[in-house]
Amino acid sequence: MITEHSAPDTDCLRSQWLADYQPQLRISEIGKLAAIGDGIAWIEGLPSAAMDQILRFENGSEALVFHLGSKRIGAILLGQEGGLAAGAAAQLTGRRLDIGVGDGFLSRVVDPLGNPLDGGPQPQFNRRRPLEVSSPPITARDFVRRPLLSGNRMVDTMIPIGKGQRQLIIGDAGTGKSSLAMDTIVAQKGRDVLCVYVLISQKRSAVVATIETLRQAGVLDISCVVVAEATTTPGLKFLAPFAGCALAEEWMWGGRDVLVVYDDLTTHARAYRELSLLLRRPPGREAYPGDVFYLHARLLERSTCLASRYGSGSMTALPIVETEQGEIAAYIPTNLISITDGQIYLDPALYARGFLPAIDITRSVSRIGGKAQLAAMKAEAGRMKLDFLQFLELEVFTRFGSRLETAVDAKIRRGRLLRELLKQERLAPLSPEQQLAWLVAYNDGEFDALAGAAVQARLARLLHKAAVGGPGLAAGRDAWREAVAGWVQEAANEPPA
After folding, report:
1. Is the peptide bond before 357 cis (omega within 30 degrees of 0)?
2. Considering 298, 363, 367, 426, which one is annotated as catalytic?
3. Is the predicted pLDDT of residue 27 greater than 90, yes or no?
4. For 480-495, how does the pLDDT look when each residue is reduced to its tens digit (9 = 90+)?
5. Taking the CB of the first residue and of the last residue of the chain, which one, N or C, has fewer CB atoms within 10 A?
6. Would you tell me which CATH number, out of the four given (3.90.1150.10, 3.30.360.10, 3.40.50.300, 3.40.50.970), belongs to the domain 99-378?
7. pTM beyond cutoff 0.70
8. Fold of the domain spanning 31-96
């Protein structure tokens, strides 16, 4: 509050400061822009520069120090104002790259620097987080104990995912990897899970389609989309997943559950390779730099489940990687398989035959998700994966036209029925109650007398009734068995649609 005595007091303080002031020599490093091109700036001078520091040019453009040479330093341009050319002065800012975080980014589309891309105002935030930080220490982590439901019949029963898990989605181009990740985000509606979708080097049409799908599904308000388009600089493509991870970390350390999709890390590795070659780093296998494994390891290790004393928040990661001709032993896929806690493999042959989602259960695994699976669902799923794998092996013998034993023939018929039940349309996630309903019905033989389209029709009616109401997940199996039997009987008596 300003009073009549404020001015004299201020004048007294100013006079005292001037009386005590001692002139000192202040040294400031000023570098010179030697060359610029392909999103890379080469600067001479600045001997105190360190990795990941931000420097600013005289016209206001900023760059991230990314390479330290004996005579020059290489930097990634973060934004280029007009008139930047060789000879421009450059100074270190003393800052490291960070991004605004918080709930103001929900329902927003931003670039890796946090700038809006949806035509809206700058997202509101109260604090900033660095893009690169150490992963949580082992003492701050907890075991994966809670399920993250994908809404997919095959995933939730045979390849379950837990909150805090890193589950790789892998397959050739056009096999439905992004669709599966999108379905998992849609399944989080009403489950108190926030989502971050990172699009790396995607076409604008794909970006628009993704945003529109999230909006129509009603999950954009719980999501943030980080976009580095195909036409942007390799530096921003490189920073995109780290920006998405920083946004998710803020919510995780705040005690909330977050799902992050990196779509995809194959293009991210290529952007890093491009940067490294432009910066004249020595290439390694397939021209990738030698630290590409560490690049993705330090990113994915930040996804975890925190201990209760740290808020019990979690960050679940669904990184996507693209293979060529089904070669999962390639360099980048192999690296990511070794880093993650399992993988969901999508087979182009299954996709071509119309089996959607085209998940190859023989190559898919969840190493820790089974510990987080709902108890009732785990009991019903039981040996389902093993039985399905045995069916796939036995089915081969039917191609020879040989006569099979009665028990073997029964296993084959049950396996074919299960394969039909596992088919699922896009953007149609199932609730846990619906999952439990079809599992009980299958195990009790309620579909055994049906075939083909009749199976899907009966299943659709059963799922509709389970969505309306049921005994609840805590109810015993007898209650569920009675409810399912009643629903199946009602569905059988209904006229066909």
Report:
1. yes
2. 367
3. no
4. 999 999 998 887 777 7
5. N
6. 3.40.50.300
7. yes
8. Elongation Factor Tu (Ef-tu); domain 3 (2.40.30)
